[in-house]
Design goal:
Length: about 750
């Protein structure tokens, strides 16, 4: 095999040198005529005395017979140019060094022969376009700065390269006419290009190559100092990434449409890394693509932005890749940091990397911005209840949310279209681990917070009898239809014949259908309208409640297993019926002799003392240390109850009196409940009310009630100085007792 290879090489080289030996020497300015034939080469030697320009003027063949020519350099035997000649006056000009060159001519395929004529001309003078310079190599001529470079790429590969050297990190400016220009690194990597012959690119110290294209082009290049806070090419990899420091603007360039710039940055603490983008372009809608990677190179997320964005990250080192999608445009980046205990932390796009979603705490997030991809959160439910997911969007966008169980089964899924803010999704969940997925289909900021609205609710997925949620008698239960034709099942068992009453309120649902079924699936009762209620005498056994609706939305159910001795003015439909009846069953309230509760009457201070004392709050001592208020004599009906509160430090001693018939404000209520039930503040759970500042004496008490979900305020207001009614104090006390 080696002998065969040697033989073939010998044949090739003998053919080459045979051609060279047959070459005819011609003089400059001499007109040469001849006839070219198919599959034969006519070879001419042309001697160049010094550096300059060689021009070959051809006269075209007639009758559409076209000769073909090739020009080779002395000893290099390197292909420079090739073309077809068929028009009078066609010329080819080359920058050449001193030496002997060869011109070979033959006809095109399928043309037997063709006549031709040509004349060679030479002009001495300095030229930087010295052939062959049609590829990046060490042989390419180096050109000085601030010098006009002339050349042509009218024939052949159509490209010329020139070497330049940068002694420091600086801006390279290249400007030309009749040409498109590009800059390459010495590793043949494209840094920048411009079709119109004008570009600026920040480069590091080193060797680079300028690429020029065009007939009779001209260009020049120069350097200027770059700001110290500039990115420098080539920074398209993590190894060559430009440092992006905190709170300092970095000037960068989009050197061509597919340019990619890599930056390295660090996050000092858990919180938000904010990137502010400033563009030269006035096109507001032109977006940049951003990719964020961890130190191992794993892509955490990708999104597009027109101006700025933020991302929740843990402490560590990261990389930011910027893809500007534009040509020769300057832009600037500024990195800032905001410490936050509850940011959305990337990468949390799967159940395996899900971030824990805390209760009652706003969590700031950025969606992945790609259809079908979610931010995923792990929700640990310690006690069954009705959970509300509240999402605030910074801008209109399509939003979807899903809830799945630990086995990956979707038990709730919602979509919203072009909603600005205030999305609330509700679902009843049992004790366990769940995964919550959020996608906005665009890269948009949002805030999510989950709260427990009630301890009593349907528990998804309860779409079949076998998964039916338990009925909690005498407690308001909440449910949610997450899609049209969703079915919710409930079940209860009674140990003897008794009368069961129920009331069902669709709330957000247009039409709701309810069926009471026995263990054999027989319909005992059915109702289909808006708000419905009834009562039936049911025998001992197990029963099912089947609820369906034609639209999604929230509804409530209230089942009572006994006919209760309700207050006449607190019907089952009363908004605080559950709370008032709960504390009545605990003998905390008794009402008035006419079996009324008077829920909207102002709450008197003496009655607050009575209710706290009857509830036997933890702060009430066994032994009393009496304090005589001037307006609460020993004969006062609530003397002992008031003494219990003052002995336990729940209310303050006051020589001016207790004012037993006076009203109590919401701020005073907060203090009494916190002290009575010894509620401790939760760390890292700040709750903001518009009308409650840190300077207020009641700030800490209001904070604690809000942290435990005992109060939620109204539209951001707590209304601390507003007097309480009997129904409102009963509601606050009932919620406190259950915490």
């Amino acid at each position: 095999m080696k002998k065969i290879h040697a033989y073939l090489l010998a044949v090739v080289f003998s053919a080459i040198f045979a051609t060279a030996a047959d070459a005819a020497s011609i003089s400059l300015d001499e007109k040469i005529t001849g006839t070219a034939k198919q599959n034969q080469w006519l070879t001419y030697d042309i001697t160049i005395p010094e550096l300059g320009f060689l021009t070959i003027d051809f006269e075209g063949a007639q009758n559409k017979m076209y000769p073909e020519f090739e020009l080779y350099g002395n000893q290099l035997y390197f292909f420079i140019d090739r073309g077809t000649i068929g028009i009078d006056g066609l010329s080819a000009t080359y920058g050449v060094k001193a030496g002997t060159y060869k011109l070979r001519i033959s006809t095109l395929e399928r043309i037997p022969e063709a006549s031709f004529a040509f004349t060679t001309r030479f002009t001495a003078g300095h030229t930087y376009d010295v052939e062959p310079n049609d590829r990046i190599s060490s042989q390419v001529p180096e050109i000085p700065a601030n010098t006009t470079i002339k050349g042509t790429t009218s024939l052949g590969p159509g490209v010329d390269y020139y070497k330049i050297t940068s002694q420091e990190d600086q801006y390279l400016h290249v400007s030309g006419t009749k040409t498109s220009l590009a800059v390459y690194s010495d590793e043949n990597k494209l840094l920048s290009y411009d079709h119109y012959g004008n570009l600026t690119v920040p480069i590091k110290r080193g060797t680079y190559f300028i690429e020029a294209k065009g007939d009779n082009y001209e260009f020049t290049y120069s350097f200027t100092d770059a700001p110290k806070n500039s990115e420098f090419e080539f920074n398209n990899t993590m190894e060559t990434a430009t440092a992006l420091p905190l709170n300092k603007q970095i000037i960068a360039s989009a050197n061509h449409f597919s340019d990619e710039d890599m930056f390295a940055f660090s996050v000092p603490k858990l919180g938000f890394a904010n990137i502010d983008l400033q563009k030269d372009s006035q096109d507001f809608y032109k977006e940049y693509d951003f990719y964020v990677y961890n130190k191992s190179g794993k892509e955490l997320f990708k999104f597009s932005s027109k101006k700025s964005f933020q991302m929740g990250l843990e402490p560590g080192n990261y990389y930011l890749k910027v893809v500007p999608k534009s040509d020769n445009e300057k832009y600037a980046l500024t990195l800032s940091f905001e410490e936050n205990a509850y940011p959305n932390i990337e990468d949390n796009n799967s159940n395996q990397t899900a971030q824990v979603l805390p209760f009652n705490t706003p969590l700031r997030a950025i969606s992945p911005g790609r259809e079908g991809e979610y931010n995923v959160y792990k929700l640990n439910v310690e006690k069954p209840g009705y959970q509300e997911f509240h999402i605030d969007l910074d801008a209109p966008t399509n939003t979807s949310l899903s809830v799945s169980d630990a086995n990956g089964n979707t038990i709730g899924e919602w979509n919203r279209w072009e909603v600005i803010s205030d999305l609330t999704y509700s679902i009843g969940l049992g004790k366990g681990t769940y995964y919550v997925g959020i996608s906005t289909y665009e890269s948009k900021p949002y805030t999510i917070q989950v709260t427990t609205k009630s301890d009593y609710a349907e528990q998804e997925g309860n779409d079949t009898r076998s998964n039916a949620s338990p009925v909690h008698f005498n407690n308001m239960m909440y449910g949610y239809f997450d899609a049209r034709h969703d079915v919710d099942y409930y079940t209860f068992t009674i140990d003897k014949t008794k009368t069961i009453s129920w009331i069902m309120d669709p709330l957000q649902v247009s039409t709701m259908n309810i069926q009471i079924l026995d263990a054999f699936n027989n319909v005992i009762w059915e109702g289909r309208n808006n708000k419905q209620s009834s009562e039936e005498e049911l025998k001992k056994g197990t029963y099912y409640v089947k609820a369906t609706a034609m639209s999604e939305g929230e509804y409530t159910l209230l089942f009572n297993d006994v006919i209760t001795d309700d207050f006449k003015d607190v019907p089952i439909t009363h908004m605080y019926y559950k709370e008032i009846m709960n504390i009545r069953r605990l003998d905390i309230i008794t009402g008035y002799e006419d079996n009324t509760f008077k829920p909207t009457n102002p709450m008197q201070r003496q009655h607050v003392a009575a209710m706290i004392a009857r509830a036997n709050a933890p702060s009430i001592p066994i032994m009393l240390n009496t304090y005589e208020f001037p307006d609460v004599p020993i004969t006062h009906p609530n003397y002992t109850n008031i003494q219990k509160l003052v002995s336990g430090g729940i209310i303050d001693k006051n020589p001016n009196g207790f004012n037993p018939n006076g009203t109590i404000t919401r701020a005073q209520m907060a203090k009494i409940l916190v002290k009575a039930y010894q509620l401790e503040p939760k760390k890292g759970f700040p709750i903001t009310f518009i009308d409650v500042s840190k300077a207020d004496w009641y700030y800490e008490y209001v904070q604690i009630l809000a942290q435990y979900g005992i109060t939620t305020g109204e539209n951001g207001y707590f209304k601390p100085n507003q007097p309480l009614t009997r129904q409102h104090f009963s509601a606050f006390l009932a919620r406190t007792i259950t915490k």
